[in-house]
Amino acid sequence: MRKPRDFDAALKTLTDKTRALKESKRRQLGELIVATGADGLEVETLAGGLLAMVKTADAAQKEAWRKEGVAFFRKAPAAQSRASGQLESDAQSHGRTPPARSATGEA
User: Fold this and answer.
1) Each residue of 77-98: pLDDT tens digit?
2) Contact 37, 98 (CB under 8 A)
3) Tens digits of per-residue pLDDT, 18-76?
4) pLDDT reported for residue 94
5) What are phi and psi of 56, to 5 degrees?
6) Which structural domain range is residue 28 located in?
7) Which of these, 9, 22, 57, 101, has the minimum number of CB atoms within 10 Å of its CB?
8) Nearest-CA neighbor of 82 among 51, 52, 105, 58?
9) Is residue 55 part of a domain?
């Protein structure tokens, strides 16, 4: 006779994995905002810019944004660390707390 399947445990496991993936996505989006320097914008300005990007139907503009994003992620790690160091000094000079760093030195 086969062992009965525990559907409740399987559902709980899937729910936990879903929750972990959503949290990871939120954390990565936050890190992206800090890495690009967009954390210096007002929340309303950032939201408005993102909404405009979502609403645009201009394929050429979307492609230009995509290319700029690709270039951003291909930057040398040294350039990114210099940029994040600049973010920290800017944050300190404006009375803000600089972004927290992980053990790997990433924001």
Assistant:
1) 655 555 556 555 555 555 555 5
2) no
3) 999 999 999 999 999 999 999 999 999 999 999 999 999 999 999 999 999 999 989 85
4) 52
5) -65, 140
6) 7-93
7) 57
8) 105
9) yes
Residue corresponding to tokens 């939201």? 47
CA atoms within 13 A on the CB side of 96: 13
Judged on CB neighbours under 10 Å (0-12, 13-18, 19+), 39 is middle
Within-domain flag for 19:
yes
- Residue 105 belongs to a domain: no
| Distance (Å, whole) CA 65 – CA 72 | 10
Token pair recorded at residue 33: 């905002």
